[in-house]
Write a structure and sequence with these properties.
Elements lengths: L2 H4 L23 E2 L8 H14 L7 H14 L3 E5 L2 H11 L5 E5 L5 H7 L4 E5 L10 H7 L4 E7 L8 H10 L3 E5 L7 E2 L2 E2 L6 E5 L12 E5 L2 H10 L21 H12 L1 H19 L5 E3 L13 E5 L1 H4 L3 H10 L2 E2 L14 H4 L8 H6 L3 E4 L7 H16 L1 H9 L1
Parallel strand pairs: 1-13, 3-4, 3-5, 5-6, 6-9
Antiparallel strand pairs: 2-10, 7-8, 9-10, 11-12, 12-14
The structure holds ligand T4K.
The site of ligand T4K has 22 residues, from α4 and α5.
Length: about 400
């Protein structure tokens, strides 16, 4: 964590780029998704307490406390913590009675689609709005068939879907509406917290999320019946000792995971402040670089600022997104192509729906243009200056670099 020491040297000339034989600008790898740790002392205290109490899992006191805290943040009556976000989504899908076809974006982490297909429900991939990267409501309406039972919106990178429009469509067509809010804890839509929309929403607390429980996730909802079903399903359907009243699985969160989450929650404001500081720094450094557009957050809403996303317009930069990623990775900046190539281009969906791309022109374009850069508490302003310096140099010499890379 000594970032100024981590940067070897500012790369000033094309010949100094690692890809052309220079030394990497960063001596250590700079990751996207480095976990935020919070107060180690508090975490260890909690873990010791868990060991003393000998209550390790199955709705223990730490899980209950975490559920209460997350429900407060989401503004919902219920929060059901689980072992990860994917299982949480699978259970919410099943408990909501989804079947047949469900409309989802293809521009998302593959878990959104898999949570459906795992239960033999067809994910119908829908195009996105190129401004927000979220489901385009007009496209959603076009994808509805007599087999459609629901919509799963994804608040991609923490920016809310067009909730009003999706709500209206769901009501008009009598569809269930769930949200994959894996990225959106602590964000708001029209001033109301994400978590409280649709029939239910899912948060992920995976290590790479700005609040983590090592692995973990949760469903939040105001629907009492749905919450009760989800609670049963995540614990084998047990309604009491020896009394199984429902089909279920094991989706429980452990106490140690909840302890990590509670410790992280105590530093949540600090994490958001650091993310916001990093975002502002990137914004400042990148604003004048032609062909590079930083994904912006609506600062009038609550945002967690946990993703730094760039859109690369190759016709201006001279280099493609993939070439830029290749150059950054060689410098030890492990930029990621979230969410390339889009679910519809991954198996089994690519084979099941070989023509899906015809309905997804904006998705097809964006999966070639977006990249994610490192942020979070493991990243310092000096790192960001160094990363942006590389990007600036590459774009300034885009045509030349492209020629060299191809030649
Ligand atoms: N829906 C959406 C929209 C999601 O983004 C996700 C998860 C889900 C649903 C499912 O929720 P969970 O079931 O995961 O709770 C990572 C995560 O594994 C995944 O949780 C996350 N989305 C996705 C956006 O990112 P990969 O394939 O990129 O993981 P990986 O191993 O390449 O790690 C990413 C970066 O994080 C690397 O640069 C290394 C760094 N890292 C990772 C871990 C685990 C660390 O520095 N430390 C660590 O402990 O998917």
């Amino acid at each position: 964590m000594a970032p100024e020491r981590r940067i070897r040297d500012m790369v000033k000339k094309v010949e100094e780029l690692r890809i052309f034989g220079g030394t990497p600008a960063f001596s250590e790898k700079l990751h996207v998704g480095r976990p935020n740790i919070g107060n180690r002392g508090r975490l260890l205290e909690r873990i010791n307490d868990i060991l003393d109490k000998r209550w390790l899992t199955n709705a223990g006191p730490y899980v209950q406390e975490l559920e209460q805290r997350v429900a407060e943040i989401a503004g919902t009556r219920h929060c059901i913590a689980m072992c990860n976000g994917t299982v949480a989504l699978e259970i919410a899908i099943r408990a909501s009675g989804l079947r047949g076809e469900v409309i989802v974006p293809s521009m998302t982490f593959v878990a959104t689609a898999h949570a459906l297909q795992w239960q033999e429900i067809t994910p119908v991939f829908c195009d996105i709005d190129p401004q927000t990267y979220n489901l385009d409501p007009h496209s959603v309406e076009k994808m509805i068939t007599p087999r459609t039972t629901g919509i799963i919106g994804v608040h991609l990178f923490g920016r809310p879907c067009d909730i009003e429009a999706l709500d209206r469509i769901a009501r008009q067509h009598n569809l269930k509406l769930l949200y994959d809010a894996a990225h959106a804890l602590g964000c708001s839509y029209h001033g109301r917290p994400i978590g409280s929309f649709g029939d239910a929403e899912m948060f992920s607390f995976h290590a790479t999320k700005f609040l983590n429980t090592f692995e973990g996730g949760a469903i939040v909802t105001d629907n009492d019946d749905l919450a009760a079903r989800i609670r049963l399903m995540k614990n084998f359907g047990f309604a009491g000792y020896d009394n199984v009243i429902y089909i279920g699985t094991n989706g429980k969160m452990t106490e140690v995971c909840a302890a990590m989450g509670l410790t992280g929650l105590e530093s949540l404001e600090d994490f958001i402040n650091v993310n916001r500081r990093n975002y502002m720094h990137y914004k400042h450094e990148l604003h004048a670089i032609p062909g590079i557009q930083l994904m912006t957050y609506d600062e009038t809403e609550q945002c967690n600022y946990q993703y730094i996303i760039l859109e690369v317009d190759e016709s201006i930069t001279g280099v493609s997104r993939d070439q830029l990623v290749q150059i950054l990775q060689a410098e030890n900046v492990l930029a990621r192509r979230y969410f390339y190539p889009g679910c519809h281009n991954m198996e089994p969906y690519r084979s099941y729906f070989p023509h899906a791309k015809l309905m997804l022109p904006e998705t097809e374009k964006l999966v070639q243009r977006l990249l994610a850069l490192p942020t979070g508490t493991a990243v310092e302003p000096g790192d960001i200056t160094g990363v942006c310096q590389i990007i600036r140099l590459v774009v300034e010499h885009g045509a030349d670099i492209r020629r060299r890379l191809l030649g």
